[in-house]
## 1
Amino acid sequence: MTFFASTAANHNDLAADEALLAGADESSIRIVPGGVEFTGNLEAGYRFCLWSRTASRLLLLLGTGENIETGDQLYYRAMQIPWFEHLTLKNSFMVQVTAQKTRWLKNPNFGALKVKDAIADQFREIHDERPSVNTENPDVIFHLHMDGIHGYFYLDLSGRSLHKRGYRRSDSSASLKEHLAAALLLRAGWPDKASRMEPLIDPFCGSGTIPIEAALMASDTAPGLLQQDNYAFLRWKGHDAELWKTLIAEAENRRNKGMAHIPKIAGWDISAHSIQSAESHAQNAGVDSYITFSIQDSANPSPEAIPADTTGLIISDPPYGVRMGIEADLRVLYKNFGNSLGRNFPGWHVSLLAGEPDLLREIKLRPDSTNVLYNGPIKCTAAHYTIFDKETRDRLTEKAEYKQREREEAELSPGAEMFANRLRKNKRMLKAFLKRSGTTSYRIYDADMPEYSAAIDIYEDKWVHLQEYAPPEEIEQAAAETRLKEMVDGVNRVTGIAYEHIFVKQRKKQRGSNQYNKRASRGQTYIMKEQGLKFFVNFTDYLDTGIFLDHRPVRNLIRDLSNNRRFLNLFGYTGTATVYAADGGALSTATVDTSKTYLAWAEKNLDLNGFSGMSHQFYAADCMDWLLTQNHTFDLIFMDPPTFSNSKSRPDTFDIQRDHRKLIVAAMRHLERNGTLIFSNNFRKFELADYIEDYYLVEEITHTTIPEDFLRKKSIHRCWTIRHKAKPVKVKKEVKDLRLKKIVPKKIMQKNPDSTDSHDLKLDF
């Protein structure tokens, strides 16, 4: 027999191991998208249903079909399957259909109808009558899977999803599914730890799924024993009742022996309701006498709850923002939990599942390994750690300190020493400004020396963002690499920031869609502070970090002007200006950007500072298109457009010099008579159109918006305030010009060679 076990994403290797233990032919086991294929006898299929902890369903292959390109061809091939071998007239049945890359099958119900007709007609030919169809609670379920023109006909042996063990009577959207809990335990190496009688604690146990699955695993209890009378194959014509009875007896015998060898298992939660639910579920699973549930604060558990003189496994699915809400509170929770781990569990192993991986950094541990698992649609990271005991931790700390001293005492190369001297000089020059302004994230270097061409920013005196400008082609690769190393060595020596916190990128001209590709997918974010506010920054995944440090004075201006005003942030990027407006007392804010990623980032920045709710709106749209189609008016508008952008999705390009006139006019249509538009860009050759100065009150404020750490490069950006004149000016012709052709959203941006910094890279226009 040929079987297909469907699994959740990244569970198929675990299911493959389960197939081997169930008796599958080892050479036949094949991991495929969506699950595992294997061959074996009926006993192997029954064993898999009974013992699998990670699979969702088990299907038995009945036949295949090639070159199926019409409904009639599907019907003809289905007629060749001996359905009468699997179904009686007394059985009800249903047909389920899935399809991929099958153009002719637009509606799965059509495919199901064709297979149903084939089954009915086959029975009529043999018995002059047909079995009934029942789509709610059928006795037998058949599956058709179409892959292009290839068809696969299956019998569903499991019926219900195998993850539904039956011990959870009530459920919630935040509950961890049983097969995901089992997968996490297997990834954490729990079976080996349980065999050594190591204890297990789930400090965020919720409804108790992880401790219960751990007890079932440790006691060698087959998950299928909990619902042994609820398999679809029990109503299958080919069912072997004696074989199933034998396998059940064997599983019960193994469970009885295993119950004597369950280590200590504990579930903690701060919610009394969750503890009550967990206790009820454990009782339903028959393992309540082997698990201790108690109300505990994960950051400050009672001493008696911590096993003495032993080490074990901490494993949990802590709350995260997608499920539970406010991320700022969660960061505090994770930080306090991390402190508790180091204080109370030296020598223990820890496995945590997190839907937002950056939360894991708050526990201040470096994982030994990670896995990607899915909790429904939520992509989660399973991170596995070792909590070092004090002796090991002291030894590693001493080793790291020795290595750092060794680096500091090592003699720098002449080039690195020269570069370090320039950094020291810049740091001395900025010292008074930084102390006076309270600035903790700043630019310390910007291509001050031609041979060391880079922009270097310090964040919170903890992290360095070094962007090297691509060297000319005539510079040899070896020489370029040497200069980059000298810059990194110089930064480390002057700032004392560890090498692992120096993030290096190369800035070069980008073309077409390459401009906005992610550089990495680590998903690591850090929190920086600025003028009493906090922002998420990312040093690895994008060319820019999520905030433009040279716009600090502009953001302060926005905060000063925002009280009791309605604020619009065009080309909103990560919403830093929106946060300042909210902090300044804005009545409402609207942030417009084509990138949903950046809008989500912006929303997180507002949440981080305690600003949320209906008064803060986010629009994923092309800014020009949004301006021409919306009727909202605002008291304060900020826009910092790109220098140049180009996209196949837009009939024309955007050029800041050519197109700023119509962009500003469109924005001014949304500005109240006494409102202010703050317009900024960083094209070094930019000239404001005479038309704008003729029809509006324009004041260039560039000199007040360049912070001291950027004065070495005065062309970093230019900035204006634009207001309506006291007497309304007719601009009908300009508005008419704007509507001559349809504007469509744009997704890709390309940097102009005359651009001096990264502002034009920050969002899609």
## 2
Amino acid sequence: MLQQPVTNPVLIFAIAMVVFLIAPLIMARLRIPGLIGLIFAGVIIGPNGLGLIDRDPTIVLLGTVGLLYIIFIAGLEIDLEGFKKYRSRSLTFGTLSFTVPFIFGTVATYFLGYSMAAAILLGSLLGSHTLLAYPIASRLGIAKNKAVTTTVGGTIMTDTIALLVLAIVAGAATGELSTSFWMVLVSSLIIYVAAVFLIVPLLARFFFRILGSEGALEFIFVMAVLFVSAYLATMAGLEPIIGAFLAGLALNRFITEQSTLMNRIKFVGNALFIPFFLLSVGMLMDIRVLLSEPSAWVLAALVVVLVNAGKFLAAWISGKIYGYSTEEIKLMFGLSIPQAAATLAATLVGFDLGLFNQSTVNAVIVMILVTCIVGPYMVETYSRKIALQEEQKPYEPSLAPERVMVPVANPKTMESLLDLAFIVRGTSPEPLYALSVAQRGLEDSDHRLIQAEKVLDRAAEHAAGAEVPLQKLTRVVPNITSAIKRAIEDSRITTIVIGWNGRLSTPQRIFGGILDQLLERTTQMILVSKLGHPLNTTKRLVVVIPPGFDHKSGFYDAIRLVKQLASQLGAMLVCYIIKDELGSYEKAFKDVKPEYTSTFITVESWNELHEEYMPALTKDDLVVVLSARRGTLAWHPQLERLPRVLAKSIPESFIIVYSPEKEEVDLRGSRGTDVPRTVLTRKSYDG
């Protein structure tokens, strides 16, 4: 048991778990990012420290998985809309972030006596970087900040260039730099990237449609895509981190930020694989060699100064060009300074080719350790400042916390309704409310109550998987509509997400007795949803807006909801404006957050909508109708016909959105009356 290094696999894993538990706690007491503690722990217990654990193939394997995980999550979380908007900024920053340190490193080491090939390779080391500190920015809620988006977009460029330089230098050193070398390199790169972005989305759409409700299989599918893509990248002459990032981008729109699947991916990475990567980085450090070779300290100090100066200069120039704040510039520097993945790969290749000696390798390892400490510290410090500044912005009604309630009854549709509610809830600190109603006075009332409680338990399990707090509500009443309305009032609900099975109880109604009465007797926002396909497979969000909707009191709430749905689903946003001017709608969509590209089409009549545009819809479209309660502004008889038409049309899913009203409107002329107009029926309510 006292043998060093430890060889017992159970004991190795136990030691690692204890380190993962204690190191962040100690760093928290010292007010230092926990990532740094794990790196120091690797130095202490590694083969060049106490020798407790060797950097054996198992540690290398788990560390490699952790590195791929970091890059993969960055691809999953990147704001694709922001990436498109800021792609020129990412291109500028990526170019500067590689070129400036590259020139510094190449010139300095060449004058120190290195060969031109060795100097170019060492310069490329300084140009690359690893998103080691990205989990900190994500945890503090600024992953979609423009500075973070710019840096993440630039990362793939810097690492790709650095690894291409490595391939070219290695080819030159081995005498393989020929025309065929260039043809193979370029063609394999193009084919690989095209294959990832064409094949992965097709596989993901097929998988989530067929097996989307199987939690464990969803996670395994994502892991398979990640590691197969990473391996195929090596076959294309690229590093696996490039494949991991591209896999994240390809799956980005299929895994929503608030989903259970995203939570599982982050949890496994943050709890297990990423700590192993940090531990393995610390194990590379050999303090004894540095003490025995003072020349390594000189070179180490030089590369540390050069990489810090080059990366900060690149962030400063980019920030000044695009008007970023001082905090955002320093955040970009913190994200782009850590060296690990491409740096390690290029260093080991250079050593094997005889371009680097042991002193150079140790100097690079010192640089890795220093940058892996500086980066997380800078990101932790300035992410908090940026997050606090964002919270201190003037209050906007569209940013008010959501209190979302989901009446649940049908176990088959419950998970899809909850997934929709997760998106609607967003980052609200309020819990999600799940309501189950059992009708009193029936022969099987007790059985209905037991079933209602079972459905609520399943809802709680699903919400727990996404780390969404859920408040269970149960009502046993003779009148279902009154029970829902009372629950709304008691819990001060702002938004109700409710299902509809597409069947009418009577031809005269919009949806059926319960839903129609709920619309008449409430003023909150209601989303009547019929979801026939997994939300994450939605290609296009088609919004139908009736004339005069821009004058409704809940106009901006509805616009925010639509943009939030499109942003989370990564779907194309197309708006059909019925017989109205586009100006006010274009301005509203531009002003309301989140930022998202929208296409507006003027439809001259309701007949044109039904005859020309409705037949063009596809099964992967999600139709959102911004409707209005009867008797209110923007109401039109066609709005009551649309649900029936959509229930029989090609799209499998649609949502009828009733924006909040300032006060209740009753057809009989009275306001706030709580007298039902129709006979209740359960057939039309599909929670």
## 3
Amino acid sequence: MDNPNTKGQSALATTASSATDTQLHFLDYWRVIRIRKTVIFVVFLLVVITTTVVTYWLPKYFASTVRIAVEKDSSETPGLFEFRPTANSYDPYFIQTEFEKIQSKAVLYNVISNLHLSTKWAKKYEIAALDMTRTYKLLKGRLDVRQYRNTTLIEIKVMDEDPQEAVDIANEIAKAYGEQRRATKMKAANMGIAQLKDDLKKADEQVNQKLAIVNAIRETNQISDAVADGVQTSVLETETIRRLESRRIEALTEYTKMDTLHKNLASLSKPMLRNVLPRDWPDTNMDELLRRLATTEQQLATLDKDLGPEHPDVKRARALLEKVNEQIDTTVEAIMRAIQVRVETYATDYKVATTELDVVKSNDIFKGKIYGIYALAKRDLDMERQLRQTLAMKITQENIDSRRSYNSIVEIIDQAEPGIYPVRPNIPVNIALGVVVGLIVGIGLAFFIEYLDTSVKTIDDVERALGAPVLGVIPQNVGALLEEGPDSPHAEAYRVLRTNLLFARKNEKANTITIISGGAGEGKSTTVINLATIFAQNGQRVLVVDSDLRRPSLHKFLKISNALGLTNYLLKQKTLEEVVQTTSLASLDFLPSGKLPSSSMGILNSTRMREFIKEVRLRYDVVFFDSPPIMGVSDASVLASEVDMTLLVVQYRKYPQVMTLRAKQMVEKVGGNLMGVVLNNINISQDSYYYYYSGYYYDYYSKRDEDGEKGEGKDGKKSSSSKTPGDLAKLDVKEK
């Protein structure tokens, strides 16, 4: 089951790695620029110098500018219902259109002819003859037309080697353009007037046709001119319709009211009608009967109480009461019949009024149709007359306008004048552009060269291509640590390599190491001697074996004779004690290669060599074997297969990654144990990418040295810590 803390740490590590990748990605660009700064500077310098020379070599051109105000184009003969646009009417395409007109052949051909430019330029440029087309192209190439800022004015700029000729051409272009505009407007105006006259003739014909139609309708239907705008103005017919409509509405209202009253009363009983009728239908007789009824009922009640029901007076009162009730019922029936009669009367009045109104309306509709046809025909006639009159006025106006001057169409605001200083080539702009282009081309070329360079550049390149870890990063210009001393800033890089190597080995008993490289000159010998020095300074017994039998070099670092060495031991000429040398470090021994006979080229691939490796593995804590390049000599492959560990030295930016990959594959094929890669000869001053791997130690030890120099005793002598590295590493080489 996964640990939650482990998952969290993994997620944080992934996030941090992603952030670092992004940061290094941007640093890579700066790294390429710093490394390729020479290429960038050379290309930049070449481009700037070339631009400057060409700029000063080009012929000088002077500019003359004429500024004109152009009246906006409008229809020379606007339509009847159009208006002439004012000068302030804005058209975003007007100025651009005029630019093209100024540069058109219609204008420039006249300029060429008036100034005889074909002949002048043929002599000037020593050409046999220039036709109009070629002269036009030359002139257009020297012409620049643009809008003056924040105005509607147009600037016509002409450039020429002769300042006066530029003035003449600019002024002539403005003049020719104005004449061309005036001619165009006059032609358009004359065409517009001719078209208006044709329209006037057609209008006269239309008026005559409409007049004949109106006369025919009036005579046929006997219509007077009391009809206007399609509406009949007869007061009698209108008043009759209004009166009949009012009567119909009144009859309908009374009928509706009486019919509703009758229906409501008919639905009531007789006792209820006695109470309701006095309110809805007042009647004097009904009121009198109701009073008598109330009085009789009151008397009957009194007599019946005092005299009894059989008394004659009571019987007379009861008979009188019955009689009054009969009279009331009779009156109620009479009133209901009267209401019914009134309903029927109003219904009849409504029907009569409706019938009369329908008859009058039918007559009015018929007359309205006739009058409408006549009114429409008369209106068409009036419109044709108005149109004809408008056309006649328009022709008169255009005839007057056509006689006015068109000098204001193109107005020259500023005449062209000779230029004082040349405007082309623009030296500051050209040089500035050369600076920018040179910088861009230089940086682009630097990145292109970097793209073509397939050598090892970064730790990521090594680990991605080889699939092996980088155990150490060694800076440039590293010397022998035996001479520089243990406090050398370079020593810390090898201490890091030693620490990584010890952590990388899986078997603690593995103590034989060979250091190989893909090609020659990658620094494996320096790495061997310095790494061995670091192990020895740590108190371990170390043996360095120069097993590069063809081109031995370690004895030169240690200043030891190479007369006797490994070859003498393998050929059984000397014992091991006789060929092993000691150095000033008590724990560091050295075995030179010795002289290699031509008959013993494969001596490393021998039983004696394997026995030698077993013996020194037991005698020493760590044994280092220098080797030739693995790509060209088989000795390196033999050593890699026999020793416990192999380190691959790769020099920064020297050989293609393919060679390094091939070296790794050769180690794996022979069964060697490749522990990792040492990236050598890094120029930290140029490549800030590696500063955090090695540069820190320089700063650290420089600071320490400064502090050591200040650490003098009271007697004015320096302390022992201020000794130079050379004082600590005086060699005392002797045979063991």
